[in-house]
What we know:
By secondary structure, the protein is an alpha/beta fold. The protein has 3 domains: 17-81 and 201-271, HAD superfamily/HAD-like (Rossmann fold, 3-Layer(aba) Sandwich), CATH 3.40.50; 83-197, 3-Layer(aba) Sandwich (Rossmann fold), CATH 3.40.50; 276-336, no CATH class. It is 30% helix and 22% strand. The chain has 11 helices and 19 strands. It has a 6-stranded parallel β-sheet with strand order 5-4-1-13-14-15. Strand 16 and strand 17 form a beta hairpin. Helix 5 crosses helix 6. The two termini are 28 Å apart.
Amino acid sequence: MWGKRAVDPTPLEGVDVVLADLDGVVYAGAGPIAYAVESLNRAREGRRLGYITNNASRTDASVAAHLSELGLPTAPSDVVTSPQAAMRLLVEVVPPGSTILVVGGEGLVVEVEKAGFVVTRSADDAPAAVVQGFAPDVAWVHLAEAAFALQKPLDEGGIPWIATNTDWTIPQARGIAPGNGTLVSAVHTAVGRLATVAGKPEVPIFHEAVRRFDAVSPLFIGDRLDTDIKGAVAAGMRSAAVLTGIDRPKHLLAAPPDSRPDYILGDLRELFEPYPATLTKGTRTTVGGAVVEVDGADLRIITAGDRPIDLVRAGCAAVWDSGRAIFGFRVPDRLYADPFARR
């Protein structure tokens, strides 16, 4: 993306399917994020709109109902969930009809039962596998049952352990809260084993979305680099990082090559704006009215311009094109500034 371009198309140019993450992109907690609903409704004009979520606490039907209540008409089949991706992995490692120890909420339980398995909450029921996902009411007793079932390593006859996702945090209306990754880590600490992960950033959930929506040229929109953008890159899908959720400008500047988006957006209204070309001349990088320069160990702002998002874009382009990690630069505080609303 960072080469010279003759024209500045919008991020939606040539896109046949828009795929959006939910938490931090569409909503935070129960409420919508500013400009998300109207922007996504506009984005569906002339293309399909679907959702990919790592949140395992709710069913696809309940997610669809929530989105519809927010003003985004959605069918359950429009929602691809990490529990659905987990079932694709589970059917490959345990026999049909097996008993599965489930750590998580309704969204996971429903998918396990739809796949033909029997749900248990107790290690005493000799489960054939453990499947773990996030739910607000997951407690120590549930994590302990998973640990009891996973005492024996897999290569010594132990049972498989599949996690729907390992997001460390989840955005809520009141702020940022611990996500499923913290719960999976607690079990890992107890048993010394690693879970197989079904959701983002692993590619099965993206491949399922491409198949379900017959996507040829999809664009995925996410707020996290380590799950959303990394997964889209691994799946060979164009991506946009939007600054309404977890990751901030400082995270984008430090993004490793496998987690760099094609587009950086302040909010979803920018899906419809011409995306300014990145122009590099010598050590200077220009995006819109923002100009930055790499001067040895210094990343200098020559002109900040009148759009903070273009300054972030220019800073990222300069750092990423340098081939050096962010800690190899002295970065002005203004590039780390965060005037972008999370909600």
